[in-house]
Backbone:
């Protein structure tokens, strides 16, 4: 059994990760910006708070978003806080919920032309967060849907597989959560971004 801290536990990916990890018998603490639903309060951009919360844990899963902030500021700031906070707590393994658009491909590191231009700033912000992780000593991995989440059907269909970006591909939150927790239970990838689909 592992002790896992899930930051962004009120979100769809985060709550699915909490359910999957608890279903495997792990000791899981969910973190959200506001109290309620048996969640601990914490801000992913607060390195000191992350250090306090992560102390004694084996790994952290982070699926975060702040619709009220500029993504270009939020994601790199969150990444820096995670790097600093986890260093304080002595936690090395970070599983980050990423985007397919920043998964490297044979054609280059970004797949932007398949997505509307209004989303490009979000993609570049995620890329900036990964740059922070690359420059850190963390044993991080960024997992993304190869395309997008299946918002219409959240149920598990599995098994998932690692696949290159494909804007048409869908994966449910339940299947995605299996990939997240697998990289805590049996880390197979290190310091890289990749996509998954069913």
Residues:
């Amino acid at each position: 059994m592992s002790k896992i801290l899930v930051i962004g536990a009120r979100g769809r990916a985060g709550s699915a990760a909490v359910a999957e990890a608890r279903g495997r018998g792990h000791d899981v603490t969910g973190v959200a910006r506001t109290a309620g639903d048996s969640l601990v309060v914490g801000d992913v951009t607060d390195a000191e708070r992350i250090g306090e919360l992560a102390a004694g844990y084996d790994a952290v899963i982070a699926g975060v978003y702040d619709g009220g902030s500029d993504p270009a500021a939020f994601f790199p700031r969150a990444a820096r806080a995670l790097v600093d906070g986890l260093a304080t707590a002595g936690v090395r393994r970070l599983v980050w919920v990423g985007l397919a658009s920043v998964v490297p491909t044979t054609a280059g590191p970004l797949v932007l032309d398949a997505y509307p231009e209004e989303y490009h700033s979000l993609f570049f912000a995620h890329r900036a967060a990964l740059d922070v992780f690359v420059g850190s000593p963390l044993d991080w991995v960024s997992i993304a849907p190869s395309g997008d989440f299946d918002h219409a059907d959240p149920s598990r269909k599995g098994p998932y597989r690692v696949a290159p970006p494909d804007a048409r591909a869908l994966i449910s939150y339940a299947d995605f959560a299996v990939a997240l927790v697998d990289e805590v239970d049996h880390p197979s990838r290190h310091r890289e971004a990749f996509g998954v689909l069913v």
Summary: The longest helix spans residues 71-89.
